[in-house]
Amino acid sequence: MRRGLAAGNWKMNGTAASLGEVEVLKTAHPAPAVDILICPPATLLERLSSVASGSAIATGGQDCHPEKAGAHTGDIAAGMIADAGGSHAIVGHSERRADHHETDAIVRAKAEAALAAGLVAVICLGESLDQRESDQTLDVIGAQLAGSLPDGLTGANAVIAYEPIWAIGTGKIPTIEQITEVHDFIRAELVARFGAEGEAIRVLYGGSVKPSNAAEIFAVANVDGALVGGASLKAEDFSPIIAAL
Ligand code: PEP
Fold it and tell me: What residues bind substrate, as annotated (predicted)?
């Protein structure tokens, strides 16, 4: 039985004032039946981890560099995320793939770096609107799974996030049938490659999840939670999503 995971990706949002949202979540969910994760911008990770300390809320980075250290201005190593109190690293988000030209091979290297630092890798994949409309979705997802996932993934060290690019921040979501099809496909691919651990790896849906659609999405058998962008920024939005899981 996989435990649900409600993960928030704050992207390039949040300053010290946002830490109050975490205080509200802590009070609202003292002993949740699901796991909660917040990935703030790197500038807030240590402070947010300190606010979340002792609560059920885990924290993580939104990206990590494949290498442990070195001359990479502006980048953050996985070990630095751990040092700042984080336990997870998102890798391969479509905004990173697009804005920073990250290929599957780079995403895989980043996921390997996260695992080597003892972090849980939250590995993102998803098709573009063109790919969806030209019926290439499962081929694209299959190729991203094959290219972006390192060997040795388990339910304890990895989470997959299926995020159709056209659903991110747009208010559009796939139909429940489309979500079901892709999540069933991802589950089958994970089991084919990782055996029993493929059953244990959680598969999140991401893309315009909000309080009004969360319950319907979470009712899909192979949806184990959500990676939430915009609706994770305010406790009043994220809290009902957590409660729906
Ligand atoms: C995301 O960027 O991971 C995301 C799912 O964003 P939103 O919830 O805002 O669509």
Answer: 9-11, 169, 208, 229-230
Our answer on whether the CB atom of 94 is closer than 6 Å to any ligand 1 atom is: no
- If you count them, how many residues does the chain have? 245
In the chain, the number of structural domains is: 1
Residue 166 is labelled as binding a ligand: no
Say which residues have a Cβ less than 8 Å from residue 73's Cβ, sequence separation at least 6: none
∠ CA 190-215-57, nearest 5°, is 70
| Residues in a beta bridge with 91 | 123
- 197 has catalytic annotation: no
The whole-angstrom separation of Cα 167 and Cα 3 is 25
> Does residue 245 fall inside a structural domain?
no
pTM, rounded to two decimals: 0.98
**CATH number of the domain to which 110 belongs:** 3.20.20.70
For 154-209, the pLDDT digits (tens) are 999 999 999 999 999 999 999 999 999 999 999 999 999 999 999 999 999 999 99
Q: Which residues pair with 228 in a beta bridge?
A: 8
**One-letter amino acid of 119:** L
